[in-house]
Amino acid sequence: MHEYSLASAIVEQVRKIAQEHNASKVKTIIVSADPYEMVIPDLLKEAYGIITDEHELFKDSKLELIILPAEIICIDCDHKGEPSMEGDEEFAYNFRCAKCGSRDTHLNIRHLTIETVDLEIPE
Amino acid sequence: MTQEKKITVKKQAYLVNDEIADKIRRLMKEKNKLFFNIMGSIGAGKTLLLERITEKLSAHYKIFVINGDVATTIDADRIAAQGATTVQINTGGGCHLNANLIQKELDKINIDDYDIFFAENVGNLICPSAWDVGAQMNIVVVSITEGEYVIKKHPIIFKGAEIAVINKCDLDGLGFDSDILVEDASKIKSDMEVICTSAKTSLGLEALIEALGIQLP
Predict the structure, then answer these.
(1) Which residues form the domain of A86?
(2) Same domain, A49 and A85
(3) Chain B: closest CA distance from residue A71 (Å)
(4) Is residue B152's pLDDT more than 60?
(5) Average pLDDT of chain B?
(6) Does the distance separating the beta carbons of B13 and A38 come in below 8 Å?
(7) What's the domain count of chain A?
(8) What sign for the dihedral angle of Cα B73, B75, B80, B81?
(9) What is d(CA B27, CA A108) in angstroms, rounded to the nearest whole number?
(10) Does pLDDT of B114 surpass 90?
(11) How far is B126 from chain A (nearest CA, A)?
(12) Domain B15-211's class?
């Protein structure tokens, strides 16, 4: 259950951003993650709610998670992009290269990224 | 009156952790030190392997081990008895170590007093893979008693590892089969080194030490 650590890291960064912009409220945070990042969206949102519960800056704020399409890097032909199929009969996450068909591919996991933050700023 | 403003951030949630991890890695490289992150499930034999490694190396190298566990100092005490300096991090409910926890322990010592550093991560095949601790190499330890599907079920941690250690190979043929795990590990990441060991009998220990790039005089 590392979603709590991730939610803490998000809150810590957003708090700094809000301070830099003299914001009075954080409204919405949009984060993106790879499908194989091992983040459980509901747990992440729950952890975010627990962490921000007593923070006035984050009161009534929303955390939205966008799941990106999977991306692989082919060891044989260097192709980078979406795999030709999801999953493998033998190995989960060992995807076939869409260009050359090789199974010798690495997942290019895009780690949880804070995309945008909507802030309320006093005029 | 207030106005709403959308800020484009495009920064990883792991940013702070990864910056600390990079700093640790740079420092270790500058000072010509080795730092390894040992991951694996509970009972895979991480601690006994570190005891054996320490026993073998402590006459030649100064070793510092950071042990991560939810509770107790059992692992740190066991490894310290073999000649390493150890520190136990109790994570409470935490399921993994992170770079900040490692940095805090490194801040308490003089890095120049040691040659080789190990982090023994919390027993878990999921969460530790996501958190860079600043090591130069990630090593995953699995034992053949964990079942023949243990690698297939936990692919991500192996994809981020430089070495897979298949432990408890002294039990090979006694209802357990190391070949399946060796084959799975070799297939899951083609450039990962796979080493069969038995921490109990020291089988494969020298091969592991060599794979870590440690010279035995």
Answers:
(1) 72-106
(2) no
(3) 14
(4) yes
(5) 95
(6) no
(7) 2
(8) positive
(9) 27
(10) yes
(11) 8
(12) alpha beta
